[in-house]
Specification:
- Belongs to the nitroreductase family.
- The chain is of the alpha+beta class.
- It is built from 7 helices and 4 strands; from the N terminus they run ααβαβααβαβα.
Length: about 180
Amino acid sequence: MNDFLTLVTARQSDRVYDKIRPVEQEKLERILEAARLAPSACNAQPWKFTVITDKELSEKIGKAAAGWGMNKFAEDAPVHILVTEEPAGISSALGGAVKHKHYPLIDLGIATAHITLAAESEGLGSCILGWFDENEIKKLAGIPSSKRLLLDIIIGYPTKEKRKKIRKPIEKVVSYNKY
């Protein structure tokens, strides 16, 4: 367990990447395998990961993620993993309707955590983006307009040092046996 906590402690949102060093295909494949193996409600696997490695396309997608002064660093990211919600399957959809929960969003969050932790284990940095021009990115990446593009996970070799993590104390976020 100490190895896992070390990994979780090391993972951070990196916003400066080596512009010259490409991410190796083998590393990307291991990261995507970690995402594929993520658990999901009723094993629905309601995801599709569109991986952008082409430099020119990556820059265009980075620009579409850098609107309103946000995420300017995305233009320099060598890899974008676009996370699209796919149909959940009947069991997950029915269960979600009964329980008033949209399980695919939970599932996509779990898969995204797998991606970012796998990237960290490969010596790569990552940052999860939710603010972007969805229509423009879908057009650039050939994602059907009917699909819901939820996240853009950027990945690359970080060039800045690790920061100290600032988190609430455990007593503020955990209780046992009652709220």
